[in-house]
Structures are given as C-alpha cells and as structure tokens.
Amino acid sequence: MNRQTQTLNELDRVIHEPGRLMIVALLFAVDQCDFLYLQRETEMNKGTLSSHLSRLEEAGYVEVVKTYRGKVPQTLLCLTEAGREAFQRYRKMLKKAL
Amino acid sequence: MDQVESLLKRPRAYDNIDGVGELMLGFMCLVFALFQWLQVHTPEHSIWNRTYMFLIWVGLMLVVTTFGYKAIKKHVTYPRTGFVKYRAPGKTWRMIVTMIGAFVAAVLAASLYAARSHWNMTSTLPAVLGLLVAAGYAFGVGRTARWKWAVAVSILLGSIVIAALPTDLTGMIASGSWMTASYPAESIGTFLLCIILYGAMFLISGGITFWLYLRHTQAPTEEANEPANADAQ
C-alpha cells in the first residue's frame, strides 16, 4: 500500500461522508447557526440532515442546543473543540493525500 | 478540496444575503452627506458646526444603523433563511482590517492636508476615493452576485464623471460658505458629490438585493427549524 492510499484510509470516516463533510465545513466557519440555515445551505431534507447531525453528535463533534425563538422552536448547532480539531486534521490529511 | 474551501467561505457571503449591510452603509453615507451640507450652508458658529453636534450625529447614526441592522436580521432574515452567529475575527483578519483602515486614514489625512494647502483636488480626490470604494465594494460585496460588478463599475465611472465636472459647477455647491476660507469650494463640492454618489449606489444595490431576497425566500410554513425524527437516508 503506498503512502497516498494509506493516508486516504486514515481519513476520519465520520467527517469523510459528503453530507457530513458539508455540515462540518459550514459549522467550522461559524460560531453557531440554526437548523434552518444548515438545511438551506446543504439542500438536504430535514430527516437526512437530522440523522447526519445525530451521527456527528454521537462522535462528539457537534453540540445541539434546543431552544425557542419567541414561540418558535429553534435548534442551535455548533462544532465542539473535538469537532474543530478533527476537521482541521481531516483537511491536513486530505491535502497531503491529494 | 476546492469544494471544501468554498464551503468555508459560504457563511461569510450569507451575511449580506439580504443586502442589509449595503442599505446601512448607504444610509450612513447619505446621512453624513446631509450633515456636511448643513455644516457648509450654516454660519460658522451655528449649532451644526459644533464638535458635540458632530458626535451626537455620529452617535445617532450608529444607533440607528446598529439597531436597524439587528431588527431586520431578527424579524426578516433569521425566520426566512436561518440564524448565523459569526466567530470573532482571527489575528490575521484583524491585521488586514487595521492595515486597510490605516491606509484609508492616511489617504484622507493627505487629502485634508492638500485641501488646506488649497491644492486643486477636484480631479484627484474623486479618482482616488472612487478607486478605493469600488475596489472595497468589489472585494467585499461584488463577489456574491455578478450584477454587483456593474455597481462597482458604476461607482468608478460616477467618480470619474465627478472628477471631470467643471470646477464652477462643483464650486457652486459650497459657494458663499464660511468653509471656503479654509478649503477650496470646488473641493468641498466634489467631496459632497462623491459621498452622495456612494450612498446612493449602496442604497440602490442594497435595495435591489433586499427586494430579490424577499421575492425568492419565505419563512417556512411548518416548523422547519425543528429536526424531525426521521430515519437515515
């Protein structure tokens, strides 16, 4: 196995999935955003986005806070410190592999 | 990899998705131009030429723009396309902003010195200002939509037209003012015209952006903000 293939194999599988990569990249650029913003930017349906977020939350990469904007429920999302580090590591490795 | 990098830039572009930033900037330019016009056309010792009045005016302008910006975001943008809280700017970004600020301040200070020395600035001032404003607009806002490049070009062309105006015409704006004892009337007129042009361009551009935003977006009818307990794809 050459070095490039080895690096590709070592990529974080939680982040490497295209949908989740999109979510993590968007969250990396902000401090906090809500579900509606992510849904609009990723063009995913509620169910798909929700399941990706659950997977990222399980991995400890995303923090989900349920709150209210007036009387409307609002789900606020942000990347945890572990999520930020994992994404930076992922970017470095991907650059190395390409 | 490029796609990841472009994703990282998207939240920043989202900040002006509704054109509110441009609207506020245009409002500030026009309000500042109005204050300048009042200073020029009132006697030297009138209330409009007092330092405290300038500070009150600037304070009011900042209060209106800050609260106006927040109110539009809260009641229009966030319910339609979502809420975003940005990260505090990093060291590099702060350094770039400081350097740009220092450069603009140096250009303005040099212009003020040149005007006081009664140098003819009617052609250089709009050209330099126009170039700076058009470049800043193109870099900061113009990249988000193609039609905005036309606004950047209009700012530049408008500045060139102001630079080419006969000095009699620009001088008429400030003729008879007490300020002409310190600054040439044509320089005052040219500066006022430039500020009005930039304010009008920002307002038009921000207005079109806001109108397009309202036309193409609407608040979700259902609770789209609340994730459903759906299965994975």
Description:
The complex is a heterodimer of chains A (98) and B (233). With 98 residues, chain A is α+β, with helices and mostly antiparallel strands. Chain A has helices at 3-9, 13-16, 18-28, 35-42, 46-58, 81-97; strands at 30-34, 62-69, 72-79. Chain A has a single domain, classed as Arc Repressor Mutant, subunit A. Helix content of chain A is 61%, strand content 21%. A 3-stranded antiparallel sheet of chain A has the order 1-3-2. In chain A, strand 2 (62-69) and strand 3 form a beta hairpin. The relative contact order of chain A is 0.19. With 233 residues, chain B is an all-alpha fold. Chain B has one domain (2-216). In chain B, helix 2 (20-41) runs antiparallel to helix 8 (185-216), helix 5 packs antiparallel against helix 6 and helix 6 (148-164) packs antiparallel against helix 8. The chains are: A alpha+beta (98), B mainly alpha (233). The A-B interface holds A 19, 21-22, 25-26, 28-41, 45-51, 53, 55, 69, 72-76, 91, 94-95, 98 and B 1, 4, 7-12, 14, 78-79, 81-88, 220, 223-233.
- How much of the sequence lies in strands of chain B comes to under 5%
How many DSSP E strands of chain B?
A: 1
Stretches with pLDDT under 50, minimum 5 residues of chain A? none
Work out the largest interface and the residue count of each chain: A-B, 38 and 31 residues
**Estimated structural class of chain B:** mainly alpha
Looking at how many chains there are and whether they match, the oligomeric state comes to heterodimer
Q: So how many helices of chain B?
A: 8
Shape of chain A: elongated
